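Here is this case:
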Amino acid sequence: MISEGAAFTFAVVFGIITVLLVRSRDVRVWEAICVGLFGLYLGQTPVVYTVHGLVTWVISGFSHT
């Protein structure tokens, strides 16, 4: 289960990424995924738990030592 603090953190991070992407006027596929993730975290839809698990899995894969 995702905590309110974690959801807020992800929403802020994805929001900043979205603003920077819109300003650059160059949106690629992975950037569109970031925008979609921002929308999911902002909307707190039931799908957010699955997406959060995927994002956590990917991030833990990159930070695994």
Q: What stands out?
A: The helical segments are 4-24, 29-43, 48-63. The mean pLDDT is 75. DSSP finds three helices and no strands in the chain.
